[in-house]
Amino acid sequence: MKALVYQGPGKKQWMEVPAPQLLNDSDVVVRVDTTTICGTDLHILKGDVPAVSIGRILGHEGVGTISEVGSGVKDFSVGDRVIISCIKSCGHCVNCRAGLYSHCLGEEGASGIGWVFGHLIDGTQAEYVRVPYADNSLHKLPEGVTDIAAVMLSDILPTGFEIGVLAGHVRPGDVVAVIGAGPVGLASMMTAGLCGAATIIALDLDRGRLEQAKSFGATDTVVSDTADWKEQVLALTDGAGVDVAIEAVGVPETFAVALNIVRPGGHVANVGVHGEAVTLHLEELWIRNITITMGLVNANTTPMLLKLVASHKLAAERFATHFFTLDQMLEAYETFSNAATTKALKVIISRVG
User: Fold this and answer.
1) Is 333 helix (H, G, I), strand (E, B) or coil?
2) Widest CA span of the chain, in angstroms?
3) What is the pLDDT of residues 237-254, one digit of tens each?
4) H or E element: which one contains 266?
5) Residue 353: is its pLDDT beyond 90?
6) Distance in angstroms (rounded) separating the CA atoms of residues 238 and 107
7) pLDDT tier at 130 (50, 70, 90 boundaries)?
8) How far apart are CA 283 and CA 280, in angstroms?
């Protein structure tokens, strides 16, 4: 089969590789019908995730059709259409029992990390992928939910909701600022209304993305490189700052923006994946009673979000802006990597035939 293989920082190759095989009774093999590219894939290619070894097939998002089923799998059969969650879950370790699937202790990956696809085991940017712990790591697709909508539930929608909105403790009436109008930031904007946010402010350097943000739930937009950006944000509050600041980029500058605009007693929810150290000025922050959270998605809200997508309460397909076939994987990466020019949000990469 063909797959996108990591060849070291800055290097990748669409190449022929062995097809995956069932290794454990709890495994299935899924024919990948639709996949996409995440900002985390770009971090890997920059060398920000050293646990990814040369030769690893990248990708952790996908929708497909089960082609093989291990003898211990109870809930899925050959031919089922499924969402592949970016987080695997053995379902029985102490962390999984607590709902902390992001730190599944199951042997697969052997690291206490639930994110294994394209990280510790081969991922979804391929014609086929092996899925461990299938009964707890897949979601059946109901009729009427398209692959395009469903692939957004592999990662970005649960990540934006859980690590941004829920971790930020968004409450009815809150003013929420989202720094970064990329796919995950937009997912936070789209789902902040589920918790009753009254005002959702999108901040970004890219005016085009800010225009897009208005269709994802943003009530107001601020270009973050203008001289008075902070004053613009404060003017949309009572002057004290926002209730919740969601950082969705992953660089020191945007984390500082979040800290600068949150009110005393507010929450900063860090969603972005950071590849370099951030200075935390506790000598200034301690007196402001700010809560700072961060983390890896558990994906335990995926079933609920899937119901909202199926009932057309969340327009997940709106994230899709560019479309490719699997053999155009490198072109898809080029488009996604240059989003400021191409205006790409999520690229859709689909099987032909």
Assistant:
1) helix
2) 62
3) 989 999 999 999 999 999
4) strand 262-270
5) no
6) 50
7) very high
8) 9
Beta bridge partners of 100: none
- Amino acid, single-letter form, for residue 71: S
**Residue 232 exposed, middle or buried by CB count within 10 Å (0-12, 13-18, 19+):** middle
- Name the token pair of 289: 């009673």
d(CA 296, CA 299): 9
DSSP letter string, 240-282: S-EEEEEE-S-SHHHHHHHHHHEEEEEEEEE-S--SS-----H
Q: What is the phi-psi region of residue 112: left when phi exceeds 0, alpha when psi lies from -120 to 50, beta otherwise?
A: left
Q: Which of 66, 70, 62 is nearest to 23 (CA)?
A: 70
- What does R_g of the chain's alpha carbons equal in angstroms? 20
Using the CB atoms, write b or e for 20-56: b if 16+ within 10 Å.
bebebebbbbbbbbbbbbbbbbebbbeebbeebeeeb
Do β-strands 291-294 and 320-325 pair in parallel, antiparallel, or remain unpaired? unpaired
* pLDDT higher at 47 or 57: 57
Query: What stretch of H or E contains 230?
Result: helix 229-235
